Sequence to fold (271 residues):
Amino acid sequence: MPELPEVEVTRLSFADRIEGARITGVRLGKPLRWPLGCDPAELVAQKVGAVTRRGKYLWLALERGGLLMHLGMSGSLAFGKPAAPPGPHDHFDLVTGRGTLRLTDPRRFGAVVWSASADSGRAAKLLARLGLEPFDAAFDGAHLHAALRKRKVAVKQALLGGEIVVGAGNIYACEALFDAGIDPRTRSDRISRPRAARLAAAVRSTLARALDLGGSTLRDFRDARGMEGAFQLQARVYGRAGQPCRRCGGTVRRVVQGGRASFFCPGCQRR
DNA sequence: AAGTGGACCTGCTAGC
DNA sequence: TGCTAGCAGGTCCACT
Fold:
């Protein structure tokens, strides 16, 4: 579910409230993607530091190490005062003096992993392959063009891979390619320099707009305050197969790439 | 080495 | 109404 905008909106909705809070308890539910990697009792009495984001991962700094969190496909975090009794999909509670941070994740593709630091140990291994942050000044047309030229996959897959630029998942990769007028099936090494520049700008503007709108709530995404996103109401192509393109009136198509659905307008997007 | 497909897990929806 | 197949926002890993 959560792509960069949802993760960042989540972060912003609880980071300042949890920072400085003292951990008083930890509750684990069913196993997530990876084991926590430490004795939960070791977390108790530690103070929570800054909450930062790298790609779709959140890093909760603690006094000794920190927690790397990922929301997977169906995860969401809530942070609030009296936490209700855990439901069947609540698999991690970090209880603090200021409230409980709770991970709800029906599919359990998400994770909470302890690491000695963000750039060593388990966190470093998970973050090692990530590409540039989309809002990093270094992510521009030239960088994207050079990176795309080295690969032979479809441009949509190159975006989703996260090794060139992080943050665009299935929704925003489709939307950015629409904005840039590029067919998602175009081979990445056939994207011209000007088109790469348009695509880089489209990735940034798409993610920025989604951030502004609180992300996308397709079914159940909420930020840590329980607020839904509104970007899905503005999607140009994602989830709109068979419907008229909002720009040219043509019919939005759905194809499958790498096992994932891609949506595009054949009239507006060219190879 | 890069590209591809399977794996993980649960819930919801459309169609019979 | 009830069952089933197909689909879903991610990404790691094994295999070619």
In short: Helices of chain A lie at 4-12, 15-18, 121-127, 141-149, 155-161, 170-180, 193-212. Residues 193-212 of chain A form the longest helix (20 residues). Residues 141-264 of chain A form a domain with the Helicase, Ruva Protein; domain 3 fold (CATH 1.10.8.50). Residues 1-3, 6, 33, 56, 70-75, 107, 109-110, 126, 160-162, 169-172, 215-216, 218-219, 221, 238, 260-261 of chain A lie near DNA strand C (CB under 10 Å from a C1').
